[in-house]
Protein: Putative membrane protein
Organism: Rhizobium tibeticum
Amino acid sequence: MTLEIHTLLAILAMAAATVMTRMSGLLLIRHVEMTEQTRTAIEAIPPAVLMAVIAPTAFATGWAETAACLVTALAARRLPMLASVAVGVATVAVLRAAGL
């Protein structure tokens, strides 16, 4: 197995872009006045991103995945993000095992 220089450069560039995106968010949030409305908006971002990631699955696959997307959306309203994802994965696994 060999690693080409272009592949390595692409990986390093993507890693740098990821780190810079995360760091810039942390640096910029220091300059934002945290009112209750702002805090509520920021707390709504992770569930919105989760739904944007799983929504195509709900419409492009079978009933088990669609039901799991719905369960994940409901779980995301009450549970932490990792727990919501775990609930969704468990739901699709159970529904597939049941033959749905």
About this structure: Residues 1-32 form one domain. The helical segments are 5-29, 36-43, 45-60, 63-76, 81-97.
